[in-house]
User: Fold these one by one.
Assistant:
Number 1:
Amino acid sequence: MKKPRHILTLSDLTVDELKNVFEIAEDLKAKYFQGERPKRLDGQVLGMIFEKMSLRTRVSFESGMSALGGSSMLLEEKHIGLGTRESVKDVSRVLSSMVDCIVFRAKRHETVEEFASYSSVPVINALTDKSHPCQALADMLTIKEEFGSLENVCVAWVGDSNNVAASLVEACSMLGCKIVISSPDGYNFSQEEIAAMTGQRQPGFELALVKDPREAVRSANVVYTDVWVSMGQESEEEERKKVFQPYQVNADLMKNAQRDAIFLHCLPARRGLEVTDEVIDSPQSRVIQEAANRMHAQKGLLVWLLEKK
Ligand code: CP
Ligand code: NVA
């Protein structure tokens, strides 16, 4: 039996494959707004396991799958008892015998890796503690729509070097963009993590680590932040709120970025903490377009993975 392709990080795609996913996504998005919903996954079924909360990821996969003529089902942790009622191995083997693809949001990245190793159908990472590849697909689609191309675009990440940042670095590396990461001491990626994220770097890619957020955004066309306390880090909340305060994206910080700079956030946002209302509701903010692009980008990925060739 042919081994399924799993998308646990963006590096599971080659650069050409990633570009192909974008082409399909852009084509499907254009058609969507012309009222066309090609049934390219007619009759196919998506299983979705969520061990953590979600709005965008769940809805974008469900809506996207439905628009493509397929269907999806949500499996919450409390319903299947993954790893408690039944082993990860058995859930994976059983579920993958009944559906065409599995989307998995997990507390631990290693659980998705283990699950995928037993699955007979493609598994897509829908966020783990380490990465969020589907988010980065939507982010790059949004940036390309804004600037017409990804060439010479500089992205500044301000805040925690977390799962969303990791996938964004990977995307910038594979698509040849500049990225500046501004995180407080103790919250930066390690050299090993950076090496793993940039294994397929393309010409134009540059990565800089700049501690001062004002300096970090100076060349930025895109200023991006995320929550200071990710799901699973709740016990660190008080400490993190103190450490990250100087990294808040507010109107003062945005003044230091390029004049054409847009603001991105994967959402959900903690308004008044990592970003002020003034910025997230400003004309520079593209957060709703970015969220909507989750569906279009993932439709590209689903068709690329599942369409019968
Ligand atoms: N950005 C994102 O993944 O949102 P959800 O957690 O709501 O799915
Ligand atoms: N870094 C956040 C992203 C949520 C979409 C988290 O993991 O909770």
Note: Strands lie at 45-50, 71-76, 101-105, 123-125, 154-158, 178-182, 206-209, 222-225, 262-265.
Number 2:
Amino acid sequence: MKLETDVLIIGSGIAGLYAALKVADNLKVIIVTKKDKAESNTNLAQGGIASVLGQNDSFDKHISDTLIAGAGLCKREPVEILVKEGPERIHDLINLGTRFTLKNGQLDLAREGGHSVHRIVHAADLTGHEVERALLESVNSKENITILEDHCAIDLITEHNVYQLKEAVINNRHCWGAYVLDVRDNTVQTVTAKATILATGGLGQVYLNTTNPLIATGDGFAMAYRAGAKLGNMEFIQFHPTAFYSGSINSGASHPSFLISEAVRGFGGILRTKDHNEFMSKYDSRKELAPRDIVARAIDNELKKRGDDYVYLDVTHKPAQEIKEHFPHIYERCLESGIDITKEFIPVVPAAHYACGGVVVDTVGHSSLEGLYACGEVSMTGIHGANRLASNSLLEALVFAYRAALEINRKVTTSKFDIPQIPTWDESGTLSADEKVMISHSFREVKQVMWDYVGIVRSNLRLERAFNRIHNLYLEIEDMYKKTKVFEEILELRNLITCSHAIIKSAMMRKESRGLHYTLDYLKTDESQEPHDTIIQNRIP
Ligand code: FAD
Ligand code: SIN
């Protein structure tokens, strides 16, 4: 089947939905989304959205906190845009029906690691769920927007599939839409568009332990890479310091680890070793409120040194009523696991949480391919540098989805588009049951390799091992892919492998420790040269 639209948006989290709302007044939009439309990282976000809204806050303070967390790699221009345009986007969310928590009639502002003041707008501890609800309601009321659930984008359409290019022609390549798998009947649709927005979120599922939901298999990074777009700073994977330890975090299951929000530390939570001793003061003067890379590494170090499986997060010194008021969801979820957080310590471990790098875009979300935009977690705007400041991610998605939408409006309404004849998907291939077993096995293998060798602490040897293992898996999956009629799991595995390759390759290129990339072979940040991004680009179409 062939579908035509002005704008194709891949993903229905905060970035995709917000962009859709901002182009739909003038243009026809199709949103394709892999599963149920609410299933996204956005829907799980807890702490909130950082923005300058408090009396004792200022743009300079938010800019400075963001730059400090980013360990010298943030780009000043997009950071200034993010911070200065943030408050307007928050008010727009409120106008769209988002109900944030209020205190004495004003927005209640929380605090998280790396922030010098209280500036996190939130809806109790279920901020993402509330934002997703409000955006979906608005999107549902727009006639110009069609949402296709259970539709998984396979690959972007560019010159390489239209003209069957054998040689790489990277410069001036165009994106004309995507091939999309209708998961319900396994048919492939060709969706052509004047502009395509990747809003596919993160890649936490690359790792064995992650806070990310099952959809986060890095499809957008992988599709963009295969199509020849530039990816940047893929080595900077943020591990959230405090995911709930359920007794078997290394069980191999892909299901997300439950997050204990950073706001719990902002509220006064204290990290303790298993013998109840506080330890963060040994690592950083900001203690529990140091940026995430520092806290996650400190926990990792304590666990390795002591041979423990988890550390504790303690809020028992805070009034029980306040705990329940601020963190009703966390309180309930922990209680279901047998822990009353008003009286008992919470067992926690770090888990893969956020990709700071991604598809390289400019300040209007445009990638290095003509017609391809990216926003939200899949993009690299230059804001996060080597380590994202807590709660800057939802804000980035809003600010840059809005900017991309304005740019697309301008371009689509003022330019002439000549989309060539796009071939339909070649469906040849067969699959035997044996191969399906190989898929689930390879899934586990990728996640284990990445967790063991490309995690919080890296080394040249570990990266080399990971590279070789992932390369073998890459050869196997490519061979299988050529012989197979596509289905969702094979697409996701292929994407996980491509993302792993991109992360390892970028980590190998960075010969220093900086922010989230910490390696035993180069313990220090290289001060002898200007901070630089690691850019990778697929040269083979
Ligand atoms: P997502 O919200 O992940 O949406 C991605 C969409 O793309 C989904 O609809 C998915 O189904 C779809 N998709 C993916 N691949 C395909 C494909 N091949 N075809 C079709 N559709 C596809 N950030 C903050 O700023 N504050 C917080 O408090 C916060 N808390 C968090 C808590 C948790 C547990 C997690 C996991 C993350 C948190 N983050 C937080 C990070 C933040 O939630 C995400 O970075 C952000 O929501 C990403 O939004 P997005 O729109 O880019 O992607
Ligand atoms: C959290 O609530 O700790 C998550 C915040 C974030 O990822 O920015």
Note: The pocket of succinic acid (ligand 2) is lined by residues 46-47, 261-263, 390-391, 393 (CB under 6 Å).
